[in-house]
Amino acid sequence: MTGLGAVALTQGDPAGIGPEIAIQAWLRRDEARLPPFFALTDPGLLEARARMLGAPCPVEATTPEEAAAVFSRALPVVPLTRAVAATPGAPDSRGAASAIEAIETAVALVRAGRAAALTTNPIAKHVLYEAGFRHPGHTEFLAALAADPPPRPVMMLWSEGLAVVPVTVHIPLGDVPAALTQEAVVETGLIVARALRERFGVAAPRLAVAGLNPHAGENGTMGREDEAVVRPAVDRLRASGVDARGPLPADTMFHARARQGYDAALAMYHDQALIPIKSIAFDDAVNVTLGLPFVRTSPDHGTAFDIAGRGLARPDSLIAALRLASRLSGP
Predict the structure, then answer these.
(1) Cα-flanking dihedrals φ and ψ of residue 135, to 5°?
(2) Nearest Cα to Cα of residue 204 among 243, 164, 245
(3) Of 195, 164, 158, nearest to 295 (Cα)?
(4) Which homologous superfamily is 161-278 in?
(5) To the nearest whole number, what is the mean pLDDT of the chain?
(6) pTM over the 0.85 mark
(7) Are 221 and 170 in contact, with CB atoms under 8 Å apart?
(8) Which of 166, 15, 146, 19 minimizes the C-alpha distance to 90?
């Protein structure tokens, strides 16, 4: 049996909770009906973390092709070229090289067909920046590795009950109105609709598009962005064949009955998207990057340095990310 259907899981920041949630996910592999996955890290790091946590998790160095065969008896690890030493909860720029190597190797394996999909454990951008990392973030780095020129990546936060996509992401709130253009809304909407059809199997995707301002601007009386930017963008999406509605008041878009009317919601800024999904699915929401030529998912949380190594981290979001990665990469 080969591991061509196995998901590649990157190390993340070795001082964060990535190593321990990988261990906990493997321990729950049967009850969670997890697909085979392999970790890209130093086997010694996972062995040391398992001992620290008192977790009965055997670790076995292997290749991507044999990972699925190993998965039932041990956590498969495709070793990096360097040893990794880290103290849980103590981020150190010396761990940045291994975190970057894991991402680069995982992308290369997925692009070569040696792994089914990519799931990434959380990194700490400030740690990478100290080591000379030049990309704005994890997603932009993946896009640069995916193709030349890089595709436009789109962040979706997905759960069984809600999928949301912020049109603008990690920028200050005061910069959002200037960054919010018709082109940004239209391009994001087209990428989301295509991914819903091609990856999620939704034959006729329905998009709900939030307004930027309270009450979607009240016909221009509370800001002009919704009439000048969002509404024309929705019209352009509809003209392109996308079933899009908006601008809609964001405060009435996310209750249970409203969520029955769409397959994904487009929000205009980060918190407008992330607050509702983290309220609805805090433990098991998944970050999915759309627009890449391969499947990439990630837990919807950070490195959690404050609880790393204490046995408090929950693997629920990682389990959901691994399961979704396998589902989206399937036939």
Answers:
(1) -95, 150
(2) 243
(3) 195
(4) Isopropylmalate Dehydrogenase (3.40.718.10)
(5) 94
(6) yes
(7) no
(8) 15
